[in-house]
């Protein structure tokens, strides 16, 4: 899927999250125990906010997030994808889903592809589906309260995909099963991106985006390995153990143990065949982004 290239660059995402700059404000005493802070005039003007109107405050572990509207407010949109190519339909529909819209009306002349894309939109149902119109509606009224839980689920799915790789080398499963597991992981990646964008817009959210992009890229490599693994059960088991170690230490915040485990993983991979090269690329994808992922996942 190549999430970074398809949706935004890291710099653009960071600017979108933090507004491209930081502001410093003094706390002003008001009453016995209360402190007040002024809000930037440009932000107030952009949001059309005036004295007496409400803003909404989320209490996070590292600060407060002030929003101009309640996150539960329903948002609707309509997109016209008639005569568009399959890839463009895919990107337009998933783009609106990730953007956080609760009701998406799709005007089309390709009911098969619109239904296929809908299957990647976790937490939604098809409210209407005809030969030229599809209405997709969110079922989730109350969001999950912890981004780490969602990311943990995605990392666990990567382990499941690696487990299927071993079964494939043992001829206990088929390549299609690996592909289906990757599609399930992809749909959860999309949900994770939607959650970040809709409910978790914080200054460090770009790190969670990077986690999603890294895991998605690693899952793509696993599928490429599955095409070529043949009967190489030894390599498949090395990969599975590497992913298990990654899953074990990623959420403990133990950078040293994770570092050692990933170096051991890379060193256990041979260097003679093309599929071993892919396996090394997979290990590198997990290893190279180690530093900045810890704050997001640990």
Quick take:
This protein is α+β, with helices and mostly antiparallel strands.
Domains, number: 3
Stretches where pLDDT is under 50 for at least 5 consecutive residues are 4-20
The count of helical stretches stands at 12
Q: Which bin fits the share of residues in helices?
A: 55-70%
Radius of gyration: 22 Å
The end-to-end distance, rounded to whole angstroms, is 25 Å
- Overall structural class, as computed from helix and strand content, comes to alpha+beta
Query: Tell me about the biggest sheet?
Result: 4 strands, mixed
Strand order of the largest sheet: 5-6-8-7
Number of strands: 8
The average pLDDT is 83
Order of helices and strands: HHEEHEEEHEHEEHHHHHHH
Strand proportion: 5-15%
Shape: flat
List the helices and strands and how they pair.
Elements: H1 3-7, H2 10-18, E1 28-30, E2 34-36, H3 41-47, E3 56-60, E4 63-67, E5 76-80, H4 86-98, E6 103-107, H5 111-118, E7 124-129, E8 133-138, H6 147-169, H7 175-199, H8 205-228, H9 233-250, H10 255-267, H11 274-288, H12 290-297
Parallel strand pairs: 5-6
Antiparallel strand pairs: 1-2, 3-4, 6-8, 7-8
Helix pairs in contact: 2-8, 4-5, 6-7, 6-8, 6-9, 7-8, 8-11, 8-12, 9-10, 9-11, 10-11
